[in-house]
Amino acid sequence: MTDDPVPKADLSRLRRTLAARFGLGSLLLATMLFLPAGTLRFWQAWVFLAILLLPMLLTVLHFLRRSPEVLQRRMNWKEKEPAQKSILFWAYPFFLAVFLLPGLDRRFGWSAVPAWLVLAADAFVLASYLGFVRVMRENRFLSRTIEVDRRQEVVRTGPYAIVRHPMYAAIVPLYLASPLALGSYWALVPAAAIPVVLVARIRNEEQVLCRELPGYDEYRQQVRFRLIPGVW
To answer: How far is it, in rounded angstroms, from Cα 178 to Cα 183?
Structure first.
């Protein structure tokens, strides 16, 4: 199924929105890392920002040129499902702590993560983000919120042939590796709560998909595992 082309006026607006969000998001992430650290001499944070933001920028430029409708769908941040609103409300402190604690860790010297482990975690973060991009390429209706488009069909190919929620399967290792990439053992504590949050999100999301997306219940019978093959 092909997507409707984005009108030129909407495309121009989309470019401006993406530029503003990318710029503000990058500034916010950098602030969360460097402000608690109290210094810019935080090489782990510089490397982390580079291996995350540069691929992100290239991805945005690619989809903006090839499939802007994919980016347009991801502009919506407002959840409609009450259960999802509640899940995200309780999840935000854990997501924020993953990126605030490393700076404090750097300032007070709580952790001593070796450089080789930091760089290995950086490689893991990059691989996880590329996995997320692969999911975006496979599913043109991938959204930030739990919703079903009237033209949407069940995707059964690529990573969706392995697990039913490959986007979350890519996000989980990214968040779990980020504390080590930022040189902090203590940030692993809030990061460990993120898989639990995503499990709750997935359970509710599947209820919505079974209710609103034709063929999804059959797809669940074909692909047994939600997140981790052979486990769950």
So the answer is: 9
Name residue, tokens 């986007």. Answer: 167
Instruction: Please check whether residue 177 is in contact with residue 121, taking contact to mean a CB–CB distance below 8 angstroms.
Output: yes
Pick the CATH number of 8-222 from 1.20.120.1630, 1.20.58.100, 1.10.10.10, 3.30.2350.10: 1.20.120.1630
pLDDT value, residue 82: 86
pTM of the entire predicted model: 0.90
In this prediction, residue 129 carries a pLDDT of 95
Contact predicate 141/76, CB 8 Å? no
Alpha helices in the chain (DSSP H): 8-37, 43-66, 68-73, 82-108, 115-138, 166-181, 188-212, 216-222
Report the distance separating Cα 170 and Cα 227, nearest Å. 9
Exposure on the CB side of residue 55, measured as CA atoms within 13 A: 17
Helix (H, G, I), strand (E, B) or coil at 75: coil
The whole-angstrom separation of Cα 141 and Cα 155 is: 9
State which residues of the chain have pLDDT below 50: 1-2
The C-alpha angle with vertex 125 and arms to 143 and 102, in degrees rounded to 5, equals 105
d(CA 183, CA 26): 19
